[in-house]
Amino acid sequence: MLVAPEHRPTLQEELKGLPSRSRWVAIAILALLVLAAAVLLLRGSTEDGTRTVVREPIAFNLRYPDSMQRVEDDTLFHLQREGKDDFIVEPLELPAYEGDVGGVLPIEASREIDRLKERFPDLEPVEEGKVRINRVAGYSLAFRASRKPRLYGRVVLLPEPVPGARTGVKLLLLATPGGGANKARDVGTTGELKTPYRSFRFGTEGP
Hints:
It is built from four helices and ten strands, in the order H-H-E-E-E-E-E-H-E-E-E-E-H-E. It is α+β, with helices and mostly antiparallel strands. The protein folds into two domains: about 5-45; about 50-200, 3-Layer(aba) Sandwich (Protein Transport Mog1p, Chain A), CATH 3.40.1000.10. A seven-stranded antiparallel sheet has the order 3-4-5-9-8-7-6. Strands 1-2-10 form a three-stranded antiparallel sheet. The protein is elongated, with a radius of gyration of 25 Å.
């Protein structure tokens, strides 16, 4: 095979110029580098954690790290690292509305904050806005749940991706500094909560 002059010397030509012992050492090192790159590529393309599917009353699936444990309670799904973070899925029921669902979500988010204040009396909203989770449009509100102890949270309203949807899920994420959250905006973007939050999908089929 012809090689353009500007691309010379080739690796083969470089190796031929080495003493026999050095050439074999160089080949061994190159082989190890190729193997390491293949392992990293495979690891990067492999989904970490445990995949779970919930079928009723609304179907969804997600993955979660082995460090999180499932809690059996009256929610649709609850993961926890005790004293560090929680990932909770609850049903969402929207009131009747006209037009796009995006118009009713901010109103419902403010109602959700009022409900959360019953649980966290010192709750302070930090930021809110539209969000997409795996192409599904929703609405997110990050908050400080308490100052002592420090606890931060995020609630995401996620209607089913069908026209006129009035049902869906509420994702409630709670994290402490020990769970990787040093401010409200960190919840769901750092630490172990990233995996279930970013992998959440409606239906039973994964990516």
